[in-house]
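Researcher: Can you fold this with protoporphyrin IX containing FE in place?
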Amino acid sequence: MQKDFFFQPFTAEFARDPYIIYSRMREDFPVYYHKDWDMYLFSTHEDISTLVNDPRLLRTLEHEMTASELASKRERENWQASPNFSRYVRVNILDSEGELHDRLRRLVFRVFTVKRISLLRDFVQHLVDERIEEVIVLGKMDFIEDFIAPIPGVVIGKLLGVPEQDRHLLRVWSERIVRFYEPEKTEEDTRKAEEASGEFADYLINLAERRRKNPEDDLISELVVAESEGQLNKDEMISTCMIILMAGHGSTIDVSGNGMLALLQHPQQMEKLQTQPSLIQTAVQEMFRYDSPLPFFHRFMSEDMEYKGHKFKKGTKIGVLYGSANRDPAQFKNPDSFDIERQPNRHLAFGIGSHFCLGNHLARLNMDIIFTSLLQHFSGLSLECERPEFRIGLASRGLKSLPVSWQA
Ligand code: HEM
């Protein structure tokens, strides 16, 4: 009975081990109605793959609204209180559907092809080598803060076209802006998110003007050309750059930390990867599956529909627990074991369907280089605390810190 169980993800217990709860949901409440959120949660691999692939399930229904419906919705949601954040962050590829989504996705897709992303290999390698050189003599570090956190902002900066001397700014902007989505954000967090959105937007507008005069081989130059051809407007250009940073920055830090922890907790797997580096690709996929950094997304039903005997009204909000799907025994053999050779590995860490992660090649390239290089240079890596703490939350899963040591 659903009344015996209440899904409460904002607790230390859930942060410690969400997988016990996900397992209970898959077994006993595969369609779970969360009363406080007025949302149906789905947790099995089969349901999530089917529903997210269903064209009647959408990220937003805003594209179907009239201008006045949209204006009153936004007023109810208090968009006017954070004008920069609302203008440049809330309307983006991920949160759009229909013509807007297709148009923006097509433009960004050009920059995220395997071929284009593989051109970043040497750049990422150099960055990782620099980090290794800086810490290796120390014998210990916080893997999150001392090693990984500075990397993704710089890589995304390079991809966007942010000049080298300014790339460090992206980490700060990203961290401030995403605080807005925290369930327990303070007024100060909201103020800083708004301020950072304004600063980042001003910076991008200025950069776009410079690229208009002197184009380079980067995303912002491509978007400037597309804008001048009328393929997107200026606000869409800015919000596209912003979502790329927001989507790729924290998730890369989190999955690297979660993957590192998985290796430290499974020393035989770590040793196997160290002696057989050619396993890196399946190992990285397993890191994404085993402890996914973005375990929860939502959809809306765009019409009345029936699914597995349940009737849903148009507008019903559903939550998809990708993190749970990735541990579903109906899809994965021994789902709770960490197996760097797992194949097939049809995980949903990058989603599925029309919003499938555009940054997946980049995310995997980063992880490939980071873990190959780390295991090549560090020996005797071990965990320096009993149980590293995960942040409390549902939409993202990552460690607060990860103290590690090695033989220096
Ligand atoms: C590092 C780990 C990453 C994970 C686990 C991840 C996961 C995801 C997921 C699950 C979605 C789909 C959301 C949904 O179903 O509603 C998504 C979308 C997206 N991701 Fe990623 N992502 C990662 C990294 C990146 C990177 C590095 C970038 C770019 C630099 C990026 C850019 C995007 C964009 C632009 C979308 C929106 C696509 C659309 O709506 O059409 N992601 N990501």
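Model: Folded with protoporphyrin IX containing FE in place. Residues 144 and 401 are 6 Å apart (CA to CA).
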